[in-house]
Structures are given as structure tokens and as C-alpha cells.
Amino acid sequence: MTENSSTAVPHQWRFFRAGGFDQVLLDTAEDLLALDQLDKKLWSALSCTVIGVEFDRRTLELIDTDHDGHIRVAEIVAAAAWAGGCLRDRSFLVSGREELPLAAIDGASEAGGRVLAAARTMLDNLGRTDAVVMSLDDVARSEESMSRTRFNGDGVITPASTDDEELACWVTAIIDCCGGVPDRSGEAGIGRVQLEQFSDEAAAALEWWDNPVVKAGVGIDEDMREEALSLWEQLAPKIDDYFLRCGMAAYDGRAEALMNGSEEQLVLLAARNLTEARDDMASLPLASVSATGGLNLEAGVNPAWREVLQRFRTLVLVPVFGERGAMTMDEWKVVKERFQECRAWWEARPATAVAGLGLERIMVWRDRSVAEKLAGLLEQDLRLQPAFEAMVDVERLIRYCRDLLTLANNFVSFREFYSRRGAAIFQAGTLYLDGRSFELCITVDDVARHAVLANQSRLYLAYCDCRRSGGAEKKTIAAAITGGSADQLLVGRNGVFYDRTGQDWDATIVRIIEHPISIRQAFWDPYKRIGTMVGEQIQKIAAARSRAAEEKAAANLMQAGQKKDEKAAQQAFDVGKFAGIFAAIGLAVGAIGTAIASILTGFFKLPWWQMPLALGGIVLLISGPSVLIALFKLRQRNLGRLLDANGWAVNTRAVINIPFGASLTSLAALPPGASRALNDPFAEQKSPWRWLAPLLMGLVLAGVVVWKLGMIR
């Protein structure tokens, strides 16, 4: 598809302005069918994820033809074109209904005729031959019924696909060895991939079994090979050691006694309980060493090795040489050479579950052509694939007629979001917290990764972990705070999140990205910070004074027993000390009073019309920078970066301006017509200075104004 496809009569598009950009208005079937003509630069999004959006998952899977987990422009265009080609009455493409009249399907077109024939077959199977409408419920019941048949066109066979018990057992064996895939009915089965894998592994196992070593008869009993290899690793070094000792005895007669072990070793063993000295016994030679050099397998064997040697004789020596009571060094060399071949062959066996079935069963697989029979069953199942695909197309057409317009108004444009007629597909639900409800909540998989790009949205975000059913169900959301203040929004605060189905989740704030929320918040924020800072400083000073007083009192108590006379003198009234304290307090109060008097004097010297300007200037000096910064950031709030962080490809700067942002957060308010009783029995006592002080100040200012105007001489 080219970027700007054209037709004989170009479609006349309509646009509306929202979010700071022009968005296409999609209302009719003609609008959807002409999407291939719409310049992709005018699409609000170029890609959205299948996971993490509040939309029918099955519809998204049908549109996502390449199954990459993303819906893209070409797939939206192709879905609209296919659905339009199946319909005689294209107005049903924007019906939004879960049923479709058969009369609306174009039986004359190839795609429509296929869908219409499949729909009638499905209704016949449901006993509704005279029905004129096909619904999604009909599709579901028909697919459920047909999926339970022996063959259902999905290219998967189960043990129930054949009456041959042997073939059914082989299907089960393949599932056990190679894994299964779900059949349309939901049962585990096998497809062509599993059959070919099993066949290849069976052939590899047979090739390994067909080794010349096995044919020569050197192989050890299959069930005993692992034990034989273990015995070999354990005993072979000991047999080599025995024959070397015999060689030393033959070389020098004096060595024969020494090669059997020293007298000291035997004396030490004789004094011990031999059942507890097996390791020391095992360190002695395998058997009695002699210059003749033969290993007697029955007599003269070290008791610590007797059982191991007899087992080795049974598993390894007898299969090679038959029954015999002794073994020479030359015979041992032959045993080693031939056993090493057998050992190498065994270690090269295929490490597959199929090889573990054993030679006999794998030969049955080959000799009875089981693979060919199962392949025939798969072919028989696949012959029904077109009919079942047509059933899927019936479902596809009904779903497209119901959902395609809604998806387009959340993808081609963000009409659903900016019109506020309902929730957009990326809005996961509503978070209730701190006396407010937040409607712009999106599902997040990885908070840390999402926050990197979401920070550029300039939105105040509260990430919340949501749990349900005692923590068994979990999800994470990012809630945009677009109204109210941030004073009580802290990590660890709890709220309740309601998803789109109305289910409630326990929500806990786990991370916050701070940005301005509103102009009002920015205006009052400096005063709140100043008040907080002053309060903290007062608390620090009070704490320091309290700590100093406590330390002084403790020191006085420690010295009370030693300096009684001094204590009496300390308790006397020190006039000079208290005079100094009062003088310091007087100086501080005087300095503060002088500063206040200077400010008021300068203020009262201003002309009356400059006094409001001076007050406004002070307010502007304090709140102006905060408000200015907030204004710039609030104008930069961007929905696109929030969605991009979630895997979307937003194609425009979707602005969330101040009025629209305010609509996304609702503050607590009394219902219309509600009454309120103001007599709080536990209300704090009201001080008259709360209204008297402002009144007096107003009177003073009024007097100053009157005096300045010359009305008082």
C-alpha cells in the first residue's frame, strides 16, 4: 500500500480540532473503507499494543494477522477492506451490534459467498435452518460443537482422533516426549511439527543402536549399563594397580611381601573393629599380590572389594569372556579396550526422551510405519481446514462490524478520549484516592522502564500497585493527577481502583513523578512551602531548647549530692542573669517591631492607588515564578509520551490542556440539592480575633486612605 492511495473519486474527509491537532472524523462505513486514502501522517497512532488495552482481545487477535502483538496501519486498512468486501449493505460495518443479518452479506463476492455458506452451515448444525440472523453466540455454540468432532481442521490430532488403540497410544507417547499443542477442543494433541520431531529422534536412536559395537556382541545388558559404567569408574584403577603390583613382584621377589601391604598396616587394622575400618581396608591391594600375575576372581580378594568385584565380573567380564574364575593381565588389556569402545558408544547415545523408550518399542515404530499412519490422520484433519476457517471468517465479520469503528476512533483518531463520550481503550479504569477520582489510568508492566519516557509527558503521575483476591491477582497502573493538590499524595497511601468491568482493587502508591497539577496549586504552593519551612524551623528550635533544658536539669541532679551549698546559691534569684535575658528579648522584639514599622511606614507613605499595586507586586514576587513555570509545563502535557512509554507509536502531540485535564479528575462535591448541618458539636472554639483582626486592619487601611485623600485634616 502506498502512502497516498488514490481512487477515481477521492473521499471527502471531515476533521475536528481536539488535543491541539486536527483529527479525522469517522462515522460512516465509507470513512472506514477509505482509510487507505488517508495520509498516514494524519493518523493519531501508527501502532498500538494488543496487551494492556481495554478492548475485545479476540477482535484484536483477528486483526493482528502477523501475530506480533501490535495493531498497525496496514492491518486496520486490510480489516476494513475485507469486511467491506463481504457486505452487500455496508452500513452494517458501523452497526456496533453482536449479530449480523444474512441478507447483509454479499453472496456474489468470493469472500462474502464463503462467509454466507459457512454461516448457513453453522445455523443448520444448530438446528436453526430458518434463522436469518447470525450472532456471536451462534458462532460460539457452533464452534464448541464442531470442535468436539474427531477431525476439526486445525491440523492437530488427539488420542480421540482414531479408534486404533495402538495409534492412540503413540499419540500419547509423542505428547509425552515432544510436548503437545492444544486442539481446537482444548485437548492436548500433536501437529506435523511434533510428528516430524519424534520421527527424527526415533531415527537417530535407531542409528545409534545400529552401532557395530552392539552387533559384535560387546554390549552390556541395557538395563545394567549405567551400573556397569559406575563400577568401571570405581574398579578399573584398582585392577590396574593390582597388575602393576604383580609386575613389581615378578621383577623382584623381595617386593612381593611389600606390595601386599606393610606389617604395620595389618597390625593397626587387627586392633580395630573392621566394620568401621572399611576405608583403610580398601586402601590395601585388590587381591593377594603374587609373581604369577593372575587375578583370582573368587579367592584371595580384599574383603572391602569382594562384592564390587563380583558385580563387575557379572556385568562386564562374563558378557565378554564368559564364565571364568581368574583373569590375566593380557585378558584385562582386551577387556579395557573393548569396554572403552562400548563406553564411548553408550556415552554417545541421543539425550532425548524418544531414545528413552527403548530399542524394542522404537523398532515397532519403524516396522509398523506408525509415522505414515499418523501423517494420514493429520492430512484427513487438514482437509477440513477450509470449512473451519470459513467459520472463523463468520466470527471475524461479525466482530469487525461491531468493533472496527470503535477501534478506529481510538487509533486513527483519539475521538473516544477527547469527546469524553466514554473511556478510551487505553484507559484502564478509575482510581479513587484523597477525595478525588482520576480517570486517566493506564496499565503498566514495568514501572521503572515506563517512567523514563512518561516523565516527558509533563503529567503528575502516581504509580499504584493494585491487588485483588488477597493478592492473588495483581496489576500496576499509572494514574494522571490533573486536579486538586499534591499535599496528601505520598508513597504508601492507599486507595481503591475500579477497572472497566467494575471490579475493585486495593491500590497503593509505589512511585510518584511530580509535575504541576494546576495553576491554583502552583499559586499556593510557595506559601505552603514557606509555611512548612517555618513550621519545621520552629519545631527544630523548640526541640533544641527542650533538649538543652533536659540536659541542664540532668547535670544539676548529678551535682546535687556534691555541692549542696552551691545548689542553694543557684536557687537564689539572680537579678543580673534575668536582666540580661529580658534585655535580649527586648532587643529582639524591638528589632522586629522596627522592621514591621519601617515596612508599614513605607507602605502608608504610598499614594492610595499604589497600595493595591504594592500588595499585588508582593504576591506576584512570591507566586509569579511558580505560576509561570506551571503554565509552561501545563501547556506541554502530552498524552503521546504516556502511551509511547507503554509500547504505542503515537503519531502526534496529543495535548492535555488545562480545561480538558481538569475534566479527567473529579473533586469531592456535595450532590445537587443536598442539605448540610453546620452545628458541629466537637468544633473548635472560635476566637473573636479570627474576624476582629481583619476588621481592625481594614478600618486602619480605610482611615489611611481617607487621610491620604485629605478628608481628615
What is the end-to-end distance?
Answer: 89 Å
Strand content: 5-15%
Low-pLDDT stretches are 1-7, 567-579
Report the oligomer: single chain
Secondary structure tally, helices: 26
Structural class: alpha+beta
Largest sheet: 8 strands, antiparallel
- Proportion of helical residues: 40-55%
**Rg, please?**
45 Å
Task: Report the count of strand segments.
Answer: 19
Placed side by side, the strands forming the largest sheet appear as 13-15-14-17-16-11-12-19
Protein architecture, described:
This protein is of the alpha+beta class and 713 residues long. Among the domains are: 15-148 and 386-418, no CATH class; 154-383, no CATH class. Helices cover 51% and strands 11% of the residues. The chain has 26 helices and 19 strands. The strands form six sheets. An eight-stranded antiparallel β-sheet has the order 13-15-14-17-16-11-12-19. A three-stranded antiparallel β-sheet has the order 4-3-18. Strands 1-2 form a two-stranded antiparallel ribbon. Helix 7 crosses helix 15 (359-367), helix 7 (192-209) packs antiparallel against helix 16 (370-382) and helix 9 packs across helix 13 (306-321). The protein is flat and about 135 Å long. 26% of the residues are buried.
